[in-house]
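Minutes, structural biology subgroup

Action item carried over from last meeting: produce the structure token record for CSF2R factor (Peucedramus taeniatus). EB confirmed the sequence was re-checked against the source entry. Recorded below for completeness.
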Amino acid sequence: AGMNGTAIENFVCVIFNVSFMNCTWHVGRIATEDTQYFLYWRPSKKEDITECQNYIKDNWGRHTGCRFQNVIIENKNAYFLVNGSRSGQNIHISDYIIVEKLTPPLNITVNCTEASHRCSISWQPPRTSHVKRRSCFKYEIVIEKK
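Output recorded by EB:
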């Protein structure tokens, strides 16, 4: 339910440095200055739903995002809800996207031998908030001669 054009647009959550997450959105196309949005989330089915504690606001004081600290998503199922009201009327609800910006691989080592003109390169997977399997990562190595 809710008036068309009041739903948020471009809802995206970005996880960075393993445990920080920013969720942002654009206000609805016909949202007036008195429209207010509220973000609720639950990292897994086992946890309670909580409202954002640190909103990002636009010039009219409307919530346009949220900053989270100490985020732990134990599996791929996190649940988000953005709702709100405009002059007492409900607004539409939309879909979401989560992106995780990974840290670089850890403990990179390079061992080269002059005799064979070969090098061995090894590393550990990057730290991540929820991906546990090494097979989920693909790497690209760029070798430059100096």
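Discussion: The radius of gyration is 21 Å.
Next step: EB to file the record with the rest of the batch.
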